[in-house]
Amino acid sequence: MYLATQVQDILVQAILDSGGREIAAFLVRLPDGSQDVWVVNNQSGNTNRVIVLPSEVRRIEREAHRCDARILAFIHSHPFDLKPSEEDWIGIAATEIPWLIVCYKGGSLQHQLFRLD
User: Fold this and answer.
1) Going by C-beta distance under 8 Å and a sequence separation of 6 or more, which residues neighbour residue 76?
2) Residue 79 half-sphere exposure, CB side, CA atoms within 13 Å?
């Protein structure tokens, strides 16, 4: 999946600001066709786990509807690689939107899209 430069910049900054915790966000396409990232709170107390409250997901869905944006993917980061965990696969199977796992290492943002078809 193509990620606009500004999206990559937002993700890198969020990862750097996270203090080593996984980040959570949504990739959206705005009405003008551009991409944006809407970062959400990771409620997990575990550094290597991501939990997003259902109320936060509903807030993002409402905001997307309000501004006629389309949610393209749920994004979360991994500290070392792009391999989905067992919990990730459960989440991927339970949602209708693809998951984009990102990893920033060696000064480069890597990403891979996962979904069950």
Assistant:
1) 22, 23, 24, 25, 42, 50, 88, 99, 100, 101, 102
2) 10
Q: What confidence score (pLDDT) does residue 72 get?
A: 97
Domain range holding 82? 5-114
Q: What's 17's domain CATH number?
A: 3.40.140.10
Distances (CA, A) of 1 to 76, 96, 100, 112: 15, 17, 9, 7
Q: Taking phi first (over 0 means left), then psi (-120 to 50 degrees means alpha), and beta for anything else, what does residue 33 get? A: left
Helices (H), 22-106: 54-66, 86-94
pTM above 0.70, yes or no: yes
pLDDT digits (tens, 9 = 90+) for 25-58: 999 999 999 999 999 999 998 888 899 999 999 9
The total of structural domains in the chain comes to 1
User: Which pLDDT does position 65 carry in this prediction?
Assistant: 97
